[in-house]
Amino acid sequence: MASPSPVPASMAKPSEPVRNKRHDPKKPHITEEPITRSNWYKHVNWLNVTLIVGVPIYGLFAAYWTPLQLKTAVWAIAYYFMTGLGITAGYHRLWAHTSYSARLPLKIFLAAVGAGAVEGSIRWWSRDHRAHHRYTDTDKDPYSVRKGLIYSHFGWMIMKQNPKRIGRTDISDLNDDPVVVWQHRNYIKCVIFMGMIFPCLVTGLGWGDWKGGFIYAGILRIFFVQQATFCVNSLAHWLGDQPFDDRNSPRDHVITALVTLGEGYHNFHHEFPSDYRNAIEWHQYDPTKWSIWIWKQLGLAYDLKQFKQNEIEKGRLQQLQKKLDQKRQTLDWGIPLEQLPIVDWEEYQSEAKNGRALVAVAGVVHDVTDFIKDHPGGKALISSGIGKDATAIFNGGVYNHSNAAHNLLSTMRVGVLRGGCEVEIWKRAQRENKDISFVSD
Amino acid sequence: MASPSPVPASMAKPSEPVRNKRHDPKKPHITEEPITRSNWYKHVNWLNVTLIVGVPIYGLFAAYWTPLQLKTAVWAIAYYFMTGLGITAGYHRLWAHTSYSARLPLKIFLAAVGAGAVEGSIRWWSRDHRAHHRYTDTDKDPYSVRKGLIYSHFGWMIMKQNPKRIGRTDISDLNDDPVVVWQHRNYIKCVIFMGMIFPCLVTGLGWGDWKGGFIYAGILRIFFVQQATFCVNSLAHWLGDQPFDDRNSPRDHVITALVTLGEGYHNFHHEFPSDYRNAIEWHQYDPTKWSIWIWKQLGLAYDLKQFKQNEIEKGRLQQLQKKLDQKRQTLDWGIPLEQLPIVDWEEYQSEAKNGRALVAVAGVVHDVTDFIKDHPGGKALISSGIGKDATAIFNGGVYNHSNAAHNLLSTMRVGVLRGGCEVEIWKRAQRENKDISFVSD
Ligand code: HEM
Ligand code: HEM
Ligand SMILES: [Fe+2]
Ligand SMILES: [Fe+2]
Ligand SMILES: [Fe+2]
Ligand SMILES: [Fe+2]
Fold it and tell me: Which terminus of chain A is more solvent-facing, meaning fewer CB atoms within 10 Å of its CB: N or C?
C-alpha cells in the first residue's frame, strides 16, 4: 500500500479531499522542518518503508526455505499480470484518464485486482496521477523526476510528504462512481483479501501449497508488481526518446514498456493522455491496450478514445522541426548576407583580374581560391567562372550543382553585388536563417 | 571488356575523345534507326554479349567438369577482391573522381588489377563515369537508371549506343597521366595478361592447377567482379534511402555496399563525389575506403579529400527539412486564419450564451462542442472557458497545454476576433503554413 497517509480516511465524503485524520492543518507539517541528525526518523514514512522494503526482504529470506512448486509459480505470474492490469488498464487508463468506459463487471474486476497490487485506492491513486499530469515536473507533481530518479520511483512514498504541496485536481467524476467510492471506503479489507488471502486460497485449496501461495503469489508478487508499476514514474521519465515533446521529462522506451505492461510510450501518453493506447504501432508492446481491445470485443468495454492520426503526426512533425531548427543553429551557413560588404560590379571584375579567384553567383561574390584544386568538376570548369556572372553556369548552364555545392558556395561568400539579384539573396536568407519560433502561443 | 567500341583507338592522342576508328561520323549511326524485326541484330553489340554473357555461360558449364581446389578457390576470391579494388579504389575514386593522390607503384598496381576486372580502360571508364555524374538520370548519362534497371546494369553495353549521345566531359587530367595513357594504349595486352594469364600463372606455377585457374580465377572471377561493379550503376540507383538529395536517383543501401566493396552509399557519393569515402560512419562497410586509408599509412596514398562534416550535416538537414515540409502539406492544420470570418467580441459572447460552446484563445474563436466530453482535463475545466477570453487560462493560467492541445485547438477554429491579438495570429500562421521554397537558387 503506497499511500502517504497509510490508512485512507474511510469515511471521506465524495467530494472532500483525502486527508489523514491525524493531520491537523494548524500544526506545521514535519516537512516544513529541515532534516537534521536528531529528527530524520520523523521524516521517514515507516509504514511505507515496512510495506515496500521490509516485507519484500522478509519474503526473499522466507523464499529460501519455501520450495517453489511449478503450479504456484504459474499462478504467481498469472496473478502478477492480472494485478498489474488492475493498475494499468484499471487505475490508470480507465479511472485516472477515462480513456474508455467499462461495464460494471469489468469495473468490479479491475477494482478488485487493482487493490491486489497494493498501491492505494483508485481514488487516492488517480488524484495523485492527475496532479502528476497537470503539474508534470513541477513541485506540485507528487512524483516529479526532477527530484531524482529514486525519488520518482519510491522516494516520494518512503519520505513523508506535505499534502499541501501536491497539486489539486478535479476528481468529481470519481466521486460519482460507486465502484471507486466503495473500494475507497473498504480499502483495507480489499487489500488484505485481494493482496494476500485470495492468492493463498487459490494455491491452498487448489493444490495444498498455502505457504508457497503466501510467499510467492502474495508477498513477492506484490513486490514485483509494485516495482514494475513504479517504473512508470521513474524509468518512463528518464530513459528513451521524446518524439512528441521535449519540454518535459516523459520518454518512450521499449524496455519501460516491457517492464510496465505497455506503459513505456510515456512521451506519447503525456501528450495524448486520454488515448486508450500507449503504443500506437502494431509491433510495439502494449498488452494493456490489447486487453482493453479484447474487452471491447467481449462487450465489456466501450467508447475507446483515440486521438486522430492527423493530430499525432502533427505533434511528431513539430518535434522533428524543433530538433532540425536546433541543429541548424549549430552549423556554419556562411557569413550572413547582411554582414557582407556591398561590392560594385567593376570592383568585382578588377579584383578578379588581379588574380583573386572570385566567382559571382546569384548576386553574391565568392572567393573560391582555396577550392579550385578540389573542385569535383575539375580546375578548368570552375576557373571558367572567375570574374563572370556565373549564376546560369553554376545552376545548370554547364552543370546543375547539388545542394551540397550550394551550401559549400555560401561558406565562400565575400561580398554582395550592388543591385544584383535581390530575389535570390532573399530566398537564400530565408532558407538558411529561418527564424521559426516554437514558443507556445 | 565493357566498352561500347570494343577495341579502343590504341593511338588516340592525349586530348582527343575516344572514337572507334570504324565509326564514320558522316554515316547515320545504327541507333538512329528504330529497332525492327529485320534489323534488331544490328543493334546488339555482339562482342559485349559474348564477353559479358557468353563466356561466363561457357565458364559455368566448364566448371561442372573442373574440380575446384581449395587453394584455387582462395586465390580466386583474393583476386576477386584485388581486381574489384582496381575498379573501386583505382578507376573510380582515384582516376574518375581524383578523391586522393597515389604514388607511382600504387598507380601501376591499380591500373594492372583494374585491367584484370575487364571493364575497359581507365580513360574510357572514367570519361563515361564523369558523364554519369555530370548528367545523372538524363539522356546524356551513359547508364541512366531512368531507362530501366536492366539497362543501367548492363543493357547499355549489350545494345549499341550512339557515341554522340553520351555527355562530354573534361578528361585533360587523365590525358596528362602517363599510367592512364599507357594502359589505354596497351589495353588489349593488359586485359589478356591481367584478366586471364596472370591468374592462371599463379595457380599453374603455384600448385599445378592450370585449368582451375583458367575457369575459376579467370573466367568466373571476371564474371563476378563485373556483375558486382555493375551493381553500382543499377542497384545503387534503385534500392535504399536518399538522406542527402532525392531529386535524382542515387540511393544508400547496405546491401549494395556489401556487393560493391563499399560503393553502396551512393546518395552520399553523388552529393560529395570527390570524398575518398563512400561510407562516412565507422560501422558502415566500405573496404575501399579502408584500403585507401591503409595505403596512406604506408605512404602510398596522400591528399585524401574529405568534405567537411559541416557541409555533410547541412545536406542531411536540408533533405530532412524537405521531407518535413512535404509531410506538413498532407496534414490538416485547421482552416487558414485568412479564410475565417471576422467576429465581434459581442457577437462571440452572445453566441456562447445561446448554447454554442465557443472558446476564444489568442484572438481566435473555437467551437469545442464536440470535444467537451473527451477533454482530458475534464468537462468542468473546459466549460469554464466558454464565452471568455481563455488565452491565459489555456496557456498556463490553469494548465499549460501541450503542443498536441494547441494543434487540436486549431482544427476547431470558427472565427477571428476583430482586433484580437494580431501577433499571436501571425505567429501561429507562421508556424503552420510555413512557405519555404527549396527550389535550387
Ligand atoms: C562556375 C563554374 C563552375 C562550373 C562550370 C562547374 C562545373 C562542375 C561540374 C561539371 C561538376 C560535375 C563533376 C562531377 O560530379 O563529376 C561539378 C561538380 C561540383 N562543383 Fe562545380 N563548377 C563550377 C563552379 C563551382 C563552384 C564555385 C563551386 C563551389 C562550391 C563548385 C562546387 C562543386 C561541387 C561541390 C561539385 C560536386 C558535385 C555536386 O555537388 O554537384 N563548383 N562542377
Ligand atoms: C479553457 C479552459 C481549459 C482548461 C481550464 C483546461 C484544463 C486542462 C487540464 C487541467 C488538463 C490536464 C489534464 C491531464 O493531463 O490529466 C488539460 C488537458 C488537455 N486539454 Fe484542456 N483545458 C481547457 C480547454 C481546452 C480546450 C479548448 C482544448 C481543445 C483542444 C483542450 C485540450 C486539452 C488536451 C488535448 C489535453 C491533454 C493534455 C495536453 O495535451 O496538454 N483544453 N486541460
Ligand atoms: Fe508520467
Ligand atoms: Fe497517465
Ligand atoms: Fe551513380
Ligand atoms: Fe562516382
Answer: C
Q: Residue B360: beta bridge partners?
A: B365, B389
Ligand 1 environment, Cβ below 6 A: A 359, 368, 371, 375-377, 381-382, 384-385, 390, 393-394, 398-399, 401-402, 404-405, 408-409; B 130, 133-134, 271, 273
Q: Measure the CA–CA gap between A224 and A68, rounded to whole angstroms.
A: 16
Q: Which residue of A has its CA nearest to B332?
A: A310
Could you tell me if B383 and A286 are in contact, meaning their C-beta atoms sit under 8 angstroms apart? no
Residue of B5, B236, B19 whose CA lies nearest to B120: B5
In the numeric block, the cell 534489323 is attached to B39
Separation of alpha carbons B256 and B244, rounded Å: 17
CB atoms within 10 A of CB B374: 17
A413, A358 in Cβ contact below 8 A? no
Cell of A71: 503450479
Q: Are B45 and B35 in contact (CB under 8 A)?
A: no
- Residue B180's alpha-carbon distances to B68, B109, B122, B183, in angstroms, are 36, 12, 6, 5
Closest CA to B174 of B189, B184, B159, B187: B184
Distance from CA of A294 to the nearest CA of B (A): 22
pTM above 0.90, yes or no: no
CA distance B65 to B55: 16
| Helix, coil or strand: residue B244 | coil
pLDDT in tens, chain B (441 residues): 344 433 333 333 444 444 455 556 677 787 788 888 888 888 899 988 988 999 999 999 999 999 999 999 999 999 999 999 999 999 999 999 999 999 999 999 999 999 999 999 999 999 999 999 999 999 999 999 999 999 999 999 999 888 888 898 889 999 999 999 999 999 999 999 999 999 999 999 999 999 999 999 999 999 999 999 999 999 999 999 999 999 999 999 999 999 999 999 999 999 999 999 999 999 999 999 999 999 999 999 999 999 999 999 999 999 999 999 999 999 999 999 889 999 988 899 899 999 899 999 988 999 999 999 999 998 999 999 999 889 989 998 889 999 999 999 999 999 998 876 544 555 555 555 444 333 222
Angle at A360 between CA B132 and CA B271, to 5 degrees: 30
Task: With CB atoms and an 8 Å threshold, state whether A440 touches B320.
Answer: no
∠ Cα A234 A240 A244 (to 5°): 105
Nearest C-alpha neighbor of A171 from the set A91, A236, A107: A91
- Candidates B270, B234, B8, B43; CA nearest to B115 is B8
Q: Which residue ranges have their beta carbon within 6 Å of ligand 2?
A: A 130, 133-134, 271, 273; B 359, 368, 371, 375-377, 381-382, 384-385, 390, 393-394, 398-399, 401-402, 404-405, 408-409
Burial of B150 (0-12, 13-18, 19+ CB in 10 A): exposed
CA A145 to each of CA A150, A213, A319: distance values in angstroms, whole numbers, following the listed order: 8, 35, 22
At B344, is the secondary structure helix, strand, or coil? coil
